Fold this protein.
Amino acid sequence: MADAIRVLLVDDHQVVRRGLRTFLEVQDDIEVVGEAADGAEGVDRAEELRPDIVLMDVKMPGMDGVDALRRLRELANPARVLIVTSFTEQRTVVPALRAGAAGYVYKDVDPDALAGAIRSVHAGHILLQPEVADVLLSQEANSGQGRGGSLTEREREVLGLIADGRSNREIARALVLSEKTVKTHVSNILMKLDLADRTQAALWAVRHGVTG
């Protein structure tokens, strides 16, 4: 499976990890490359294995999912993190998204929907429920305020497409650019707006009326 999406499972419940592995291993395009029982081990395994996607619980003993996300960001680990949680409260999910998660699903998610979520996040999309997006929008209302004028026209185009949920590959196709050039634009956007990741960039774009 040379082109398979490489997934790391991080959850303190072995039965959950076993269930996820059992389902994901029958997917032709997904490969489970490892497991971890807490956030600290998850960070170590992510650094060792360099997976494409980390499926991670929020509440775990020791280092929890939010702290693990922050640590992965500090290490500039390229893995995209999809939170798999049994907690539906916004106070649990929102900090994880602000820490850099690309989205979240609940542990009772339909298996096919989970596979679809993994593929979507791997493609660069962001998975947010409307009610959580509203909370993030209100919290990010002042982030990057007044800095939008520093963006070039091309950067605004890229930002609008990020807000539409497009991956770097899709943005490159739409604007007839290389993916490397798109990545550079995304980095410049985050720096100019003082934002941490694509999730915050997408929310900033919606809040300020920048659309693709």
